[in-house]
Amino acid sequence: MKLAIPKERLDGETRVAASPETVKKLTALGLEVIVETGAGEQASIADQVYAEAGAAIAQSAADALKDADIVFKVRAPSDEEIGLMKRGVMLAAILNPWDDKPRLQKYAAQGINAFAMEFMPRISRAQSMDVLSSQSNLAGYKAVINAAAAFTRAMPMMMTAAGTIAPARVFIMGVGVAGLQAIATAKRLGAIVSATDVRSATKEQVESLGGTFVMVESE
Predict the structure, then answer these.
(1) Do residues 193 and 172 make contact, with C-beta atoms less than 8 angstroms apart?
(2) How far apart are CA 170 and CA 176, in angstroms?
(3) Distance between CA 22 and CA 25 in Å, rounded?
(4) Cα 34 from Cα 14, distance rounded (Å)
């Protein structure tokens, strides 16, 4: 069975659908893995590393997708890529189907079995296939880093010859995966952190990270 990993073509997309470690696991299962040349370039993974992991390197998307039984992508395939896939292929990617219904019709017309990975249920059995939690973690981290870069003062308390600079106060709205990472990151940067969520059960999680929970009562 042939599994293809084409290069992501959406502007600004630097991710790749499989790492060399994943390729090793897939080939160990007996799959023939084909990686399009340059697929991992934006993620700092060279073709040679994929080849050493057991993948074959295709010189184009057409070569990678030709006769592929399974296709892994990060984002939805382009119209050109859809046209290169054979009928009955299984596509797994972040597809955003509710906002891209015309593309769904193209999958159907091409006979593609498309799986929107962002709809994978967040249960224990499906945890290894969860594509959202890792990205939410990064989003929470990056949100605080970007805020710190835009902030006009230092985040932690600083003692200087001219006096003491008070630490920044950071307020996090929403204590999901991204919010928890934002709390942890802001605390590591030395800020005084408080957070709120409609779920009172998150109070313990906020406090375990050193934050102060703010409960807003609904009227």
Answers:
(1) yes
(2) 16
(3) 5
(4) 19
Looking at 119, 136, 167, the residue that finishes a domain is 119
Query: Residue 174 is which amino acid?
Result: G
Using 50, 70 and 90 to split pLDDT, how confident is the model at 49? very high
Stretch 81-110: mean pLDDT: 95
pLDDT for the residue numbered 219: 63
Q: What is the pLDDT of residues 153-178, one digit of tens each?
A: 899 999 888 889 899 999 999 999 99
Which of these three, 102, 119, 136, is where a domain ends? Answer: 119
- The token pair at 60 is 């184009």
Backbone φ, ψ for residue 42 (5° rounding): -70, -15
Among 217, 200, 209, 150, smallest CA distance to 179 is for 209
The helix or strand, by DSSP H or E, that contains position 193, with its residue range, turns out to be: strand 192-196
Return the pLDDT at 29: 96
Contact (CB, 8 A) for 23 and 33: yes
To the nearest 10°, report the CA torsion of 107, 108, 111, 114.
50
* pLDDT in the model for residue 172: 97
> CB–CB of 31/3 below 8 Å?
yes
Beta 163-165 vs 158-160: how paired, if at all?
antiparallel
> Could you give the number of structural domains in the chain?
2
